[in-house]
Amino acid sequence: MRKKTKRIIPLSITLATAVFFTGISAQVAASEQVTRIPDQMKAGTIIEFDEDNKMRIIVEGEPVPKKRPIMRKVLSPEQQKLLEEEEKMVQKIREEAKDLPVYHLENPAPQPGMRVIYDGEGLIREIIYPKNISPNAYKPLPRGTRKPPGTYTYGKSNNSITIKGTTSGSVLGEGRFTNYSDTVGENDNTLKKGDCATKGEIDNPSYGTKIASRNLENDVFAYVYKRDNGALPDAVLDIWKTGVELYGLTWSSSLSFKGRYYYEFNENDDK
Questions:
Q1: What is the pTM assigned to this prediction?
Q2: d(CA 258, CA 249)
């Protein structure tokens, strides 16, 4: 049977943390008027756009350190069983969502006075908006809600979040997992190991939602709990600090890895 062609629908969204550095020259970009925020820069770079949207380097970054490969270990029978169950659910969601529309999300356009801060991986850590355009800043969906059904793609890491259903259904996120070290979550809760944040402008499930997840680089499965949300422009899930140990990893502030997550929801989740 021929697969149906999905509709690709452009969609703009505010993003505020970002992607891998592949060698874009900040100096060259700064000499010209630009129409989009660079999603790749040297680690620690800070840029600002002037009144003509020309990029100015505030802080010159350093080359991004080479990423170390994640080591694989023999999985326990329990881990193997969890992976098999996860694989079945992922394939089920993909099959049921195959005819849904696809929306591609872009970085916000530069604005005079906008400042962009890049982190230790050369990714956008924060976008600071001028006061007169602050309404464009990050705005999560109401808690317990998601975007309409469809697949939402964004970022250089080929991130995608597939939403199936409205009052009940499932969500599948595939792409990059990052980590963060905030102390307080979305419910004035003290964040702890096992907590995570979702991309709130696309997928903002109920506080405490149990999320099944997998480190695709070593196949370690873990359950984490949604107790925060964030912009995540080049990530599908943000793991709180030492929670990366659940995936067989050792924490560092710049750690990221390829992963996927899913959960099911229904209309009674947020009641």
A1: 0.83
A2: 12
Q: Is the separation of the CB atoms in 200 and 229 below 8 Å?
A: yes
Lowest mean pLDDT among 4-13, 34-43, 47-56, 235-244: 4-13
Determine the Cα angle at 233 with ends 231 and 237, to 5°.
70
| Predicted confidence (pLDDT) at residue 21 exceeds the cutoff of 90 | no
Which residues pair with residue 176 across a beta bridge?
A: 258
3-state secondary structure 248-259: CCCCCCCCCEEE
Q: Is the backbone of residue 123 left (phi > 0), alpha (psi -120 to 50) or beta?
A: beta
Q: How do residues 213-240 score in pLDDT, each as one tens digit?
A: 999 999 999 999 999 999 998 899 999 9
Distance CA 93, CA 98 (A): 8
pLDDT value at position 3? 33
- Residue 185 CA to residue 193 CA, distance in Å, equals 12
